[in-house]
Specification:
Strand order of the largest sheet: 1-11-10-9-12-13
InterPro entries: Ald_DH/histidinol_DH, Histidinol_DH_CS, Histidinol_DH_monofunct, Hstdl_DH
Strand content: 15-25%
Number of domains: 3
Cofactor: Zn(2+)
CATH topology of the largest domain: Rossmann fold
Shape: globular
Structural class: alpha/beta
Radius of gyration: 25 Å
Catalytic activity: L-histidinol + 2 NAD(+) + H2O = L-histidine + 2 NADH + 3 H(+)
Function: Catalyzes the sequential NAD-dependent oxidations of L-histidinol to L-histidinaldehyde and then to L-histidine.
CATH superfamily of the largest domain: Nitrogenase molybdenum iron protein domain
CATH architecture of the largest domain: 3-Layer(aba) Sandwich
Organism: Natronincola peptidivorans
Distance between the termini: 79 Å
Helix content: 40-55%
CATH class of the largest domain: Alpha Beta
Length: about 425
Amino acid sequence: MNMIDLKGGDQAQFFKELQERSSVNFKDYQETVQNILGNVHVRGDEALQEYTKKFDGVDLSKDQMLVTEEEIEEAYSQIKAGYLKALRLAITNITSYHEKQRQNSWFSSSEGIMLGQKVTAIANVGIYVPGGTAAYPSSVLMNAIPAKVAGVKRIAMVTPPDQQGRLSAGVLVAAKELGIQEIYKVGGAQAIGALAYGTETIPKVDKIVGPGNIYVATAKKEVYGFVDIDMIAGPSEILVIADDSANPKYVAADLLSQAEHDELSSAILITDSEALGKAVAAEVQRQTALLDRKEIVEKSLNNYGKIILAENLEEAIALSNKLAPEHLELCVDKPFELLDKIENAGAIFLGHYTPEPLGDYLAGPNHVLPTSGTAKFYSPLSVEDFTKKSSVIYYSQEALGKVKDEVMVLAEEEGLDAHKNSIKVRYE
């Protein structure tokens, strides 16, 4: 990893490159995706079968799209020792955290007036789970649990099969443990189309969540408005702020935990200690050589990995707020003293023993986070994303009478006679 000075001239160029890595031109994929979506909309299951054979190399009948109980039982027999125990602990922690986010309806009344807000869960939600080498059970947990806590009645999960028509055992077990009844063997843009429009086998949903490749992301953009979506996620990123109390071995390992995701992932260390920066750089090189995904890690670090020297921690935080990272680790002696100064971050990890992967799997907070600087205005996926709110208004005859003139004046100012008349007729 290269080291640059916070005040150095190469800083601006690096940050420009960092922004551009997420500037995907969706127009390059738009026509292809629109064709797929249109075909699924018109031809339903028949189109899904064709695309599954074309892109996933497996010929599935309509009856084989929906996962059977026998397939789920087989998945339980295939999981590794200890997986079920770890999975259930993660479910407990994630559920407990999200239950604290639950919002209730509220009402207030005074002198013939009652106002309030009614909170209602979205009825039907679709979850996209990547397949193949990127089959992540944690994606099932993080997308489904807040929906369940919110009170969503129906969750439909789609995920692409392998060439034998099978799904990841870990993913299937995760879905079963959460009580998901509908699991379909379909992926790609065609799966997004099925969820958005509905087919003979897959009933439509009202909202689609979950990560996917560029075709899935483009499809989500295309169907937005017809259904709701969560967000369009960019490459993963981690920013570590560390002082001389940090262990370079820990910091290096945490940076690499995100660099292994993708060649476009960014891993950045900001420190006020040059000695720590050099030690981390050496440790990154040593640990990278031992990793299975070494090639991906090296490309990620060469392009978007940096160690930045700051004059002090205040400067480090100012830069972090500018970058608004997806994951922010405060590997400093007194992390809680800095917490209040953090304005923009998807998830904040405090201290030397709170590595980012803890948040990915087990701690409880959601790992679906805003990327590419969008933490300046977006939040992590939450229970609130699976609810909608209705305003509630009640006025008695007497209460309306006290404000009727003001309402009619405002309606008249806007030139809306029918609005004015709606009040007027009640007092003629």
